[in-house]
UniProtKB/TrEMBL annotation:
Main location: cytoplasm
Organism lineage string: Eukaryota, Viridiplantae, Streptophyta, Embryophyta, Tracheophyta
MF (Gene Ontology): metal ion binding; poly(A)-specific ribonuclease activity; RNA binding
Protein name, entry field: poly(A)-specific ribonuclease
EC number: 3.1.13.4
Subunit structure: Component of the CCR4-NOT complex, at least composed of CRR4 and CAF1 proteins.
Entry's localization field: Cytoplasm; Nucleus
Keyword entries, A-Z: Cytoplasm, Exonuclease, Hydrolase, Magnesium, Metal-binding, Nuclease, Nucleus, Repeat, RNA-binding, Transcription, Transcription regulation
Span of the signal peptide: none
Pfam families: Exo_endo_phos
Function, as annotated: Acts as a catalytic component of the CCR4-NOT core complex, which in the nucleus seems to be a general transcription factor, and in the cytoplasm the major mRNA deadenylase involved in mRNA turnover.
Metal-binding among keywords: yes
Protein family (similarity comment): Belongs to the CCR4/nocturin family.
Length: 603
């Protein structure tokens, strides 16, 4: 007889919108142990599995802290209630919890007030209360009448709910009949029960007792502090979600660059400070998707995208939002894991804004082979390849704009844009390899620029801090022969240093913050910049490292920066934490810049 040995979930904390798929271990009559699904349509040895999900609803209503989902709430922010912000975001477990999150609340209140009140009266009413009392909380036990609206969130379920059993002060509602279940807002604050039973395919009768598991209470997906766009003119652009009309009418376009942290690298050993449920891919993929879609960028450059995640998740999900997808997987000469786990660079663009013209793939392994054949003695070739072959790649895409560019003298001419997306080698001791990879990419881009009058964008995770040789080469077009990074060159591939040049007029987009005008918001952004390098203080923030590795470079002779997505600071990430976190699902932050093509003169 088929029997169930074990059922369990990778994480016992369910989150709204994140699919739950229990792991079910089975034993066949021949003692073979399997983990495959056994649906009624494909029975095994005359048996199949039947599943049910229940919501366990207590008669006593419970509100959950929005910051610490394992804790029961004791405080509620009145400002959130007044601003009609989703009530689940208003709860806190202690005064300290509320105090630590106050800056986050202020931003939420400002967004809500600016969205619904043009005259500012309601905003004044809300902040008057907070400013006069120093707090804005209800300190109570959160009675049933206060919390029932937020906990119920309507009555619609994925499966028609049926009261199946009452046990003391609990009621079980059936909410699903498949192996997987995606918690809804109705489930917030309630535990879920999964039930799996073996069924005789002929008689349709249950065989043996049901195997069950209970989850913790369902929690809402944590909400990070919204990030604003800042105009280079110093005018704060309210919100980042309502840019479509402005962008399409003004002939500008936006570019996003984001290292999303591959599932293969997101281990509890590396990121022990991140809760296991927030590190799980089933949670992170939904949180990342919400963030990426929310920016509404015209061009999206992602790094560390696993092959299976690209094919099964990002490409189909972003297709629903109007994006066409292109992907370049890393080569597999060094990697020894599953081919599906190999990550790469993925570039997406909105079909209504751009059309695909051409794609180039850069494999640095092939370039390493050509280099060693040309300049490395045969006796040293194996050693050279071991140092240079690291599987890194770049994806270069040429796009044609479908929107008009104001001020163009010859509107009949095609407006092309070349976008490079790369992830440079991570090993910090291989400074020569990093510089060689960047130089190789730039030489390829120079060939494209020579063949067409085309603006250039170079995006990615360069694993190189501001002022390093790779960054200097990108930003200045050359590297000082006395640069300390050049002392690491065991293969002699960087000699002579005078060859480390390029002719592309590249400028880092975020250096524009240093050239902007005055304003409270801009001053705040400038404090998040390194005054010596004019780059962000960090784009990568873990317990072991905080610094900048990610950039968006653009050709300054053909593009201008119109606005930039604000940078985060350590306060925004909350005290005593690092990335990834429940709010931000990568150890990097996203960079987003808005560009305009400069008018081209007739030749």
């Amino acid at each position: 007889m088929l029997s169930v040995l074990r059922v369990h979930l990778p994480s016992d904390i369910p989150i709204v919108g994140c699919e739950l798929t229990p792991y079910v271990l089975l034993r066949r009559p021949n003692k073979e142990v399997i983990s495959e699904d056994v649906p009624e349509s494909a029975p095994v040895d005359g048996y199949f599995l039947r599943y049910k999900w229940y919501r366990i609803q207590s008669d006593k209503k419970v509100a959950i802290c929005s910051i610490h989902p394992s804790e029961q709430a004791t405080l509620q922010c009145l400002g959130c209630v007044k601003a009609k912000i989703p009530v689940t975001k208003s709860y806190h477990c202690s005064p300290k919890c509320f105090s630590d999150a106050w800056q986050h609340h202020r931003v939420l209140h400002e967004r809500a007030a600016s969205a619904v009140n043009e005259n500012g009266n309601e905003e004044e009413e809300i902040f008057g209360r907070f400013n006069s009392t120093g707090s804005g909380v209800i300190n109570s036990s959160l009675s049933s009448s206060q919390s029932s609206g937020s906990l119920a969130n309507g009555t619609t379920t994925l499966y028609p709910a049926a009261v199946t059993q009452r046990n003391g002060g609990e009621t079980w509602f059936e909410v699903g009949r498949s192996k997987t279940y995606t918690p809804t807002a109705d489930d917030i604050g309630h535990a879920l029960k999964f039930e799996c039973v073996v069924v005789d395919a002929e008689t349709k009768l249950h065989i043996g007792p049901a195997s069950t598991l209970l989850t913790s209470r369902v929690i809402p997906a944590p909400c990070p502090t919204p990030r604003r766009m800042f105009s280079v003119s110093g005018v704060d652009i309210p919100g980042h979600l309502d840019l479509d009309g402005r962008l399409s009418s003004s002939g500008t376009f936006t570019v996003l660059s984001y290292n999303i942290l591959s599932e293969a690298y997101a281990t509890s050993e590396l990121y022990s400070y991140c809760p296991s449920w927030a590190l799980a891919w089933t949670y992170r993929r939904q949180n990342l998707l919400r963030e990426i879609v929310g920016y509404r960028a015209d061009i999206v450059c992602l790094q560390e995208v696993q092959s299976n995640h690209f094919e099964e998740f990002f490409a189909p999900e972003l297709d629903k939002h109007g994006y066409q997808a292109l992907f370049k997987r890393k080569t597999a000469e060094v990697f020894n894991g599953s081919i599906n786990n190999i990550d790469g660079c993925a570039t997406f663009f909105r079909r209504d804004r751009f059309s695909h013209v051409k794609k180039y793939e850069v494999e640095f392994n092939k370039a390493a082979q050509s280099l060693t054949d040309a300049v490395v003695p045969i006796a040293q070739k194996k050693t050279a390849l071991n140092r240079l072959v690291k599987d890194n790649v770049a994806l270069i895409v040429v796009l044609e704009a479908k929107f008009s560019n104001q001020g163009v003298d010859n509107p009949g001419k095609r407006q092309l844009v070349c976008v490079a997306n790369t992830h440079v080698n991570v090993q910090q001791e291989l400074r020569d390899v990093k510089l060689w990879q960047v130089h190789t990419l730039l030489k390829g881009l120079e060939k494209i620029a020579a063949s067409a009058d085309i603006p250039m964008l170079v995006c990615g995770d360069f694993n190189s801090v501001p002022g390093s040789a790779p960054h200097t080469l990108l930003a200045l077009g050359k590297v000082d022969p006395m640069h300390p990074d050049l002392t690491v060159d065991p293969l002699g591939i960087l000699r002579p240093p005078t060859k480390l040049t390029h002719q592309l007029p590249l400028v880092s987009a975020y250096s524009s913050f240093a050239r902007m005008g005055v304003g409270l918001g801009l001053e705040q952004q400038r404090r998040r910049m390194d005054p010596n390098t004019n780059e962000p203080l960090f784009t990568n923030c873990t317990r072991d490292f905080i610094g900048t590795h990610d950039y968006i470079f653009y050709s300054a002779d053909s593009l201008t920066v119109e606005s930039l997505l604000e940078l985060l600071d350590e306060e925004s990430l909350r005290k005593d934490t690092a990335l990834p976190s429940p709010e931000w699902s990568s150890d990097h932050i996203a960079l987003l810049a808005e560009f305009r093509c400069k008018p081209r003169t007739r030749r």
